[in-house]
């Protein structure tokens, strides 16, 4: 029996205090990880949760599957690479190189979630801060459209509210205010004071009432503005609820951050659920100047027409390479049905709705359990993943560099 | 006794549920996932109007599809509001129409609720079937 | 949030009150105490499983919840609800060494943390460190109070063998 330290890749928290005791290379006790993290680590040791290597539903060896993937990608007129939010930085750069070589497009789930917000942050329009700073200095934690108990179980206990470093001597109470803005009662709203309840879709109106752009009075806005103004360091955790309600447009948030820039310090941290969406957006931003939806057909171009969603909707992609992502579960089925005629190659560590729909499935090693690598956490801090046990599956890097070689 | 209403319109808010993610991680898209994901929470007033009780099945119909799930009352909800975990079930109802809204409408779905005698939609029916060559 | 404090009499009224001793308790009143402390389960009463007590059985189940006593502690955990978020562990570590003594705040010597999350669920690993385990210290409820999913409950320490009739 031996004990190993691990960084959990179960969600965007990337908890780095996990201890795993293994016996015969199987985990027998996982300490500190939440239920989601423990299930994630255990899934990689459960053969039923791993996909088979298949071509058209027929089982085959990985060499044969990679050759078939090469054939499909090579024959494609409009190849599209999608996913990579949960891949290591090195796998991501290989995928970008592959897209460039193929003259295809590359996109991630960021294009329909945090992409525009991350672009505003990378462009310097929205101030960022690290989770370590949150823990040390923030005095107002504002979760907007986010419910970490359901998405990031240990976010409060490891990174924010309960991890706060300055405490009242009278007990556990941190000198910090926890506020949430939500459209319904959530597990987080029951612990927030105050919990601000708004109507579904009202988020933009609330922000515009705070910034004074809208004349209409929204009840919640005034109290919220007052709270932010009184704070010294306010951290806004943006959840998917907020991003969807704003239609992905970070503009109102940028204007709100500008408004408070003179009176308080305000920083934004996106509540990214994927392990390395931040890393992929930054890499693409460095290579192509855009955080998502990039095409390499004639030089480098970016824009809506290169996004996964648009290409699927218009049925313009004829071969899709999905890397470590599950769009068939995450997106409306009415959209995904448009992929009827396209060829789909799926690289995935776990069996998902997408591996069930793919023409070619290549099982890969689970980053953070079966292979190491580097990823960027939601606050942009680079985290080195540890390897628990080398599994039987090739890494995404290995498959992608093999594809690059033979194409 | 009041006449039962056959169908009502609700605004469904979807939200991530850790129990749905846990079921999917532990057992894949099986029975546990179905039990956790195939649920809609409605206001007690709407439950009364439809004359249904906790656990009764309802058919949700939206522009892009329909599913049968179990209904449960939630006193936190107002009349005409509903809540559902984000899952393959809610994604069957969600639509993507860029002319109306730039993102897929995964989080706020307009749907009709009507009581039904049908069984809960099996997960397999929600997987996108493709003719794998 | 913990459940409202349950009263033994309230539970007792729902029991068969035959004092048959089949559950292993001397009286039904003692069984009521044991149910509240979760050291016995509703199913331990063979009478309650009969159809005629169906309503009582369901009412008791609802009152007591799905929680199970973690052996050797006051903690009652609903294993299907616990997500291992560790909020309880974090607040416990903060509150562990601060106590009130003669009405003033005082520090208690450092002790190993009583709670830990293992295999994705809460475990009590060092019960002797818990403030509730030390007679004379404040009765602390923080871990249960801060559970976002109401998965954790605390019960009073076992009553000294029921002084019932």
What does the model show?
- The complex is a heterotrimer of chains A (407), B (133) and C (165).
- Helix content of chain A is 35%, strand content 20%.
- By secondary structure, chain A is an alpha/beta fold.
- Chain A folds into 3 domains: 2-39, no CATH class; 51-114 and 276-406, Rossmann fold (3-Layer(aba) Sandwich); 115-270, Dimethylsulfoxide Reductase, domain 2 (3-Layer(aba) Sandwich).
- In chain A, the strands form 4 sheets. In chain A, strands 5-4-17-16-15-6-7-13-14 form a 9-stranded mixed β-sheet. A 5-stranded parallel β-sheet of chain A has the order 10-9-8-11-12, with helices on both faces. A 3-stranded antiparallel β-sheet of chain A has the order 1-2-3, with helices on one face.
- In chain A, β6, α3 (89-102) and β7 (105-107) form a beta-alpha-beta unit.
- In chain A, α3 (89-102) packs across α12 (277-288).
- Chain B contains 4 helices and 6 strands, in the order βααβαβββαβ.
- With 165 residues, chain C is α+β, with helices and mostly antiparallel strands.
- Chain C has 2 domains: 8-65, 3-methyladenine DNA Glycosylase II, Chain A, domain 3, CATH 1.10.15; 75-154, Alpha-Beta Plaits (2-Layer Sandwich), CATH 3.30.70.
- Chain C is 23% helix and 15% strand.
- Chain C has a 3-stranded antiparallel β-sheet with strand order 1-2-7. Chain C has a two-stranded antiparallel ribbon with strand order 3-4.
- The relative contact order of chain C is 0.19.
- Residues 160-165 of chain C have low confidence and may be disordered.
- Chains A and B meet through α1, α6, α10, α13 and α14 of A and β1, α1 and α4 of B.
Number of strands of chain C: 7
Oligomer: heterotrimer
Helix content bin of chain C: 10-25%
Kindly estimate the percentage of residues of chain B that lie in beta strands according to DSSP. Answer: 25-35%
Shape type of chain B: globular
CATH topology of the largest domain in chain C: Alpha-Beta Plaits
Helix amount of chain B, in percent? 10-25%
Largest sheet of chain B: 6 strands, mixed, barrel
C-alpha-based Rg of chain B, rounded: 15 Å
State mean pLDDT of chain B (0 to 100 scale): 93
Topology:
The complex is a heterotrimer of chains A (407), B (133) and C (165).
Chain A (H helix, E strand, L loop, with lengths): L1 E5 L11 E6 L2 E6 L3 H9 L10 E2 L2 E2 L2 H14 L3 E5 L5 H14 L2 E3 L7 H8 L8 H7 L2 E5 L3 H4 L3 H5 L17 E6 L12 E3 L5 H9 L7 H12 L2 E6 L1 H6 L5 H11 L3 E6 L6 H12 L5 E2 L5 E2 L5 H6 L5 E5 L3 H4 L2 H4 L6 E6 L4 H5 L2 E4 L9 E4 L5 E4 L10 H11 L1
Helix pairs in contact in A: 2-17, 3-12, 3-17, 4-12, 8-9, 8-11
Chain B lengths: L7 E8 L2 H10 L3 H7 L1 E4 L1 H6 L7 E6 L2 E9 L7 E5 L2 H6 L14 E8 L18
Parallel strand pairs in B: 1-5, 2-4
Antiparallel strand pairs in B: 1-6, 2-5, 3-4, 3-6
Chain C lengths: L7 H5 L15 H9 L17 H11 L3 E2 L5 E3 L9 H9 L2 E4 L2 E4 L7 E4 L2 E4 L17 H4 L6 E3 L11
Antiparallel strand pairs in C: 1-2, 2-7, 3-4, 5-6
């Amino acid at each position: 029996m031996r004990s190993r330290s691990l960084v959990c890749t179960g969600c965007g928290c990337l908890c780095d205090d996990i201890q795993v005791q293994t016996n015969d290379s199987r985990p027998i006790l996982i300490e500190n990880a939440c239920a989601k993290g423990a299930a994630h680590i255990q899934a990689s040791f459960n053969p039923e949760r791993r996909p088979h290597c298949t071509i058209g539903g027929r089982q085959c060896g990985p060499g044969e599957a990679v050759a078939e993937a090469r054939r499909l990608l090579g024959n494609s007129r409009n190849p599209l690479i999608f996913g990579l939010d949960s891949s290591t930085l090195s796998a991501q750069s290989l995928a970008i190189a592959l897209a460039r070589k193929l003259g295809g497009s590359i996109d991630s789930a960021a294009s329909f979630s945090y992409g525009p917000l991350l672009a505003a942050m990378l462009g310097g329009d929205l101030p960022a801060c690290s989770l370590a700073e949150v823990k040390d200095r923030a005095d107002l934690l504002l979760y907007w459209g986010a419910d970490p108990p359901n998405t990031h179980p240990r976010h409060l206990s490891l990174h924010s509210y309960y991890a706060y470093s300055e405490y009242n001597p009278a007990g556990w109470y941190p000198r910090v205010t926890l506020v949430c803005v939500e459209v319904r009662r959530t597990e987080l709203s029951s612990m927030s004071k105050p919990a601000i309840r708004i109507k579904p879709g009202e988020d933009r109106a609330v922000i515009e009432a705070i910034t004074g752009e809208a004349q209409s009075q929204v009840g919640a806005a005034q109290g919220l503005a007052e709270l932010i103004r009184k704070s010294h360091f306010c951290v806004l955790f943006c959840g998917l609820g907020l991003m969807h309600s704003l239609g992905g447009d970070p503009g109102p948030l940028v204007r709100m951050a500008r408004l408070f820039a003179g009176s308080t310090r305000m920083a934004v941290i996106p509540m990214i659920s994927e392990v390395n969406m931040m890393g992929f957006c930054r890499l693409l931003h460095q290579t192509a100047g855009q955080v998502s939806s990039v095409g390499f057909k004639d030089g480098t171009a970016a824009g809506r027409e290169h996004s996964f969603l648009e290409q699927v909707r218009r049925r313009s992609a004829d071969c899709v390479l999905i890397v470590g992502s599950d769009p068939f579960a995450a997106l409306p089925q009415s959209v995904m049905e448009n992929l009827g005629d396209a060829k789909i190659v799926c690289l995935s560590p776990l069996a998902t709705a997408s591996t069930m729909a793919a023409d070619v499935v290549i099982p890969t090693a689970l980053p953070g359990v079966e292979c190491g690598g580097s990823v960027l956490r939601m606050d942009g801090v680079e985290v080195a993943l540890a390897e628990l046990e080398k599994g039987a599956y090739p890494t995404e890097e290995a498959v992608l560099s093999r594809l690059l070689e033979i194409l | 006794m009041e006449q039962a209403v056959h169908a009502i319109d609700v605004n469904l808010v979807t939200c991530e549920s850790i129990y749905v993610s846990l079921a999917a991680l532990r057992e894949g898209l099986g029975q546990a996932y179905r039990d956790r994901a195939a649920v809609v929470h409605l206001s007690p007033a709407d439950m009364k109007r439809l004359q249904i009780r906790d656990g009764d099945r309802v058919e949700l119909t939206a522009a892009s599809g329909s599913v049968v799930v179990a209904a449960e009352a939630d006193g936190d909800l107002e009349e005409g509001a509903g809540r559902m975990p984000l899952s393959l079930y809610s994604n069957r109802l969600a639509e993507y129409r860029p002319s109306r809204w730039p993102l897929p409408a995964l989080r706020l779905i307009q749907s009709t609720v009507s009581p039904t005698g049908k069984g809960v939609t099996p997960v397999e029916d929600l997987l996108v079937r493709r003719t794998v060559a | 949030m913990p459940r409202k404090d349950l009263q033994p009499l309230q539970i007792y009224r729902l029991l068969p009150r035959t004092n048959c001793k089949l559950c292993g308790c001397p009286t039904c009143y003692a069984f009521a105490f044991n149910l509240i402390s979760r050291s016995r389960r509703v199913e331990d009463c063979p009478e309650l499983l009969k159809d005629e007590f169906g309503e009582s059985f369901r009412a008791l189940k609802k009152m007591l919840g799905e929680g199970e006593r973690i052996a050797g502690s006051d903690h009652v955990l609903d294993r299907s609800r616990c997500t291992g978020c560790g909020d309880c562990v974090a607040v416990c570590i903060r509150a562990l060494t601060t106590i009130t003594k003669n009405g003033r705040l005082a520090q208690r010597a450092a002790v190993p943390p009583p709670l830990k999350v293992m295999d994705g669920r809460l475990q009590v690993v060092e019960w002797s460190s818990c403030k509730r385990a030390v007679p004379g210290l404040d009765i602390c409820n923080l871990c249960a109070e801060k559970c976002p999913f109401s998965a954790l409950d605390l019960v009073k320490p076992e009553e000294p063998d029921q002084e019932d009739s």
